[in-house]
Amino acid sequence: MTTDITKENPEAAAVPPPGAAPAENGPKKVPQGHKRLLTRRDRITLGFMAGVPTILHIALVWVTALASIALAFTTWDGIGFDSIKWVGLQNFKELFTNNPQFWPAVEHNVIWFVVLIVIPTPLGLFLAVQLDKKIRFSRVYQTAFFLPVVLSMAVIGFVWQLIYNPDTGLINSIIGANEPGKYIDWIGDPDLNLWAILVAASWRHTGYMMILYLAGLKGVDPSLREASALDGANEWQTFKNVIFPTLRPTNTVVLVVTIIEALRCFDLVFVFNKGAEGTELLSILVTNNIIGESSRIGYGSAIAVVLLLISLVVIIPYLVATFRKERRA
Amino acid sequence: MPHLSPSGLSLPSPSRRSLLRGIGGAAVLGAGIPLLSACGGSGSASDPKTVTLGSKASDPVPKKAFADIYAAYKKKTGITVDVNTKDSNTFQEQINSYLQGTPDDVFTWFAGYRMQFFAAKGLATPIDDVWKTIAGNFPEAMQKLAKGEDGKYYFVPLYTYPWAIFYRKSVFKEKGYEVPTKWDDFVALCKQMKKDGLVPIAFGDKDAWPALGTFDQINFRQNGYDFHVELMAGKASWTDAKVRKAFDLWAEILPYHQEGAVGRTWQDAAQTLASKKAGMYLLGTFVAQQFTNKADLDDLDFFAFPEIDPAYGQDTVEAPTDGFMMSKSPKNKAEAVKLLEYLGTPDAEDIYLKSDPSVVHASTKADTSSYTPIQKKAYDMIAGAKSLTQFMDRDSRPDFTSTVMQPALQKFIRDPKGVDSLLSSIERQKKTIFASG
Questions:
Q1: pLDDT in tens, B204-257
Q2: pTM value?
Q3: DSSP bridge partners of B156
Q4: What SUPFAM superfamilies does this protein's entry cite (chain B) (predicted)?
Q5: What's the CATH number for B50-160+321-381?
Q6: Which of A55, A197, B251, B260 has a Cα at 20 to 30 A from B415?
Q7: Using an 8 Å Cβ cutoff, are B144 and B151 in contact?
Q8: Rg from Cα positions in chain B
C-alpha cells in the first residue's frame, strides 16, 4: 500500500521539471488577484478540497504506515486487540536468521531492478528515439508498444503463464520440450523462473519507458537539433552530446519509477507461480504472512518495514536532490 | 458533492494538474462514501423467520447443491435461509475479520484444527444441544472431528471425501498390473511403469498444497496416526528420525513422479492420467472433476495408499470434511440451532450429493443406493477407517503450513538431497510460529 502511494508522489512531483518553469511562474503572479476573488463559498470549497484529501491521506497513509511499523515489534494473530504481544526485535531476528525465503527475496528484488534498468530502459529509449522521428504510423507503433502497460499485471501474468506452461505452453510445445525427459520447467525451476518472469516484466516496462522518454523527447528544443546539425554532427553524435543530456530530468524520473517498480513488483509473480522457490519477493512474503486465516501480522509487518526502509533509502536522496533543485530555481 | 467540481472548474485557468487532482479527490470521495456506509448499515433487525448463513461455496456446482438444501428447509419449516456467498478463496482469507465483525448466524467451514482454532478463540458458539439430536447420525470418527479442544461440539459435518491413489482400470488390465497393498510392491510397480514408458505417478505442485497430501500419506503409514497428529500439532519435532525416515521413503519414489511438478497445476497433472500417459495419481476424489468424458470417468478407480509399517497397516484415511459452524453471537440462535439440526440429517446430505456427486455423505445413516462405484468405494474406505485425518493445512496451523511447509516441500521435491538442512529449518520456524500462541 505504502509503496503504491509513494509511487504516485514522486511521479507527480517529478514529471513537471521539463516544462515546469513557465507553469510555476504563471500561477505565482495570479494568486494576488485570486485572494480577492475568493468568496466564502469558494473558501469552504477549497477547504474541503484540501481538507478531505489531507484527512484521507493521514488516515490511509500515515496512520496505517505507523501502525504497521509498531506492529512489526509485536506478534498478533489479528483476533482482538488484546492478543497483541510486544516482542521487541524478535521478528527481525527471526527474519534475518531463520527465514529461508527472506534473503533470496531481497536478492530477487535487486535483480529485478538491475534487469529493468539494463534491458527495457535502453530499449524503451531506443524505441522512443525511433518513434520521435515522425515516421509513418507512429501512433500505431506507440499504441502497440504501450498496450502492455495498460494491461493489468495480473492479466500479463496470466498470459505469460500460458506461454510458459510446461505441458501445454507455447514455448515448450514449439521446441518439443513437453515430453518426459526433456522438460523445461519455466515456472517451477528456480534457476529459470525468475528470468522467465523478467521477460514478461521487461515486455511491459519497455512500453512504459518508451512513453516516458517520448514525452521527454517532445520537450527537447528543436533548435538544439538544428544547431548541432549545422555544426556537422551526425545523428549519433547529436543524440549522445545534445539530446541525451537534455533528457536528464526524464532519466531521473525513469530511475525512480524503475526502482519503485522493482520494489512493488508483486502481482505478476503472484499470478505466475505465487512466489515459489526462485521467485520469492519481499512483497509476496508480506502478503503470504499477513493475508490468510491465522495471520502472522507482526511478522509480516516486520517484512513490510524492511521493504519500507529500502524504499526510503532510495527515495530520500531523490527527494533531497529534487528539493535542492527547486530551491535553486 | 455535486457543487464541488463546478466551482473547482470555475477558478480562473486552473493548471491541468490541480484540475486532475480535484477530479482524483472527487473520485476518492465517490469511492469512499459507499465504503463507509457499507460499514454501518448492515445491522438490520433480526427477523424471527430468517437465519443468515455465510457461504464459501462460490463454484457453481456446490453453490447450487447448497441452495437446494436451503430451499428444501424453507419448504419444510417456513424459515428462510438468507445466504451470503463469497468467493471461496476470499472467504478463507477473510475469515478472521469476518468472524470478528458481524458474521452470519451460521457459516460454512472445515473440520479439524482450522475449526478448533476459531472455537478456542471464542469466535464460534458451542453446539452441544444440536449434537444431542444428531449424534446418532454420525460415526465415532466424525463425532471426534466435530469437537473443539475443550471437548464441546462446534461443527456439523455435511460431506467428506478421501485421498487415495487413482488409476485407470483399463491401463492396469492391459499391462497386467496389480493393485499394490505393500510399499515394496508399490515401488516395484512404479519401476515397471517407468519401463513401460508411462509416467508412474502424475504430480503437479504449482499450487503448493498437493505435496502436503503426499507427505501426510507416507507419514501416517510409516509413523502412525498418533505421531502424525503430534507432528501436526507442533508437539513432535521435525528433526525426529521418524520424520527423516518418512522423507527417505518419499525420496525413494520421487524419481517416479512426473517431472517439473512445481510448474504444473493439479488439473494438468490429472490430464496426464486422463490421457493414459500417467499410471497413478495421488489426490482427493475431486480429481474426477477433470474426467469430463463419461467413459473415462467410468474407467477411473482408486486404491488406498500402500501399507508401509504393518503395525499401522492402512488404518488411517485422509478424509477432509466440510460442514457448518455457528458464529459467536448469532442474531437468531433458536432458529440457527434448528437449521444446524437439519443440516446434520442424512436428508440434507442426500440433497447436497444429488447435485455434487464427487463427495460422499459424512453420516453413516445416509442412503448410498445412488452412489457411483467410486463413491461407494470412498464411502466404505472412510467408514472402515480407524482414524481420519483432515489434510496438513487443516490439521495444523494454516500459517505454519502456508508460509513454512508449502515452500519447504516444493524445495524438497526439487532437491531431495538437502533434506537435513530443510528439516532443521522447518523445526526452527515451527518453534517460533507455535510459540506465538
A1: 998 889 999 999 999 999 999 999 999 998 999 999 999 999 999 999 999 999
A2: 0.80
A3: B324
A4: Periplasmic binding protein-like II
A5: 3.40.190.10
A6: A197
A7: no
A8: 25
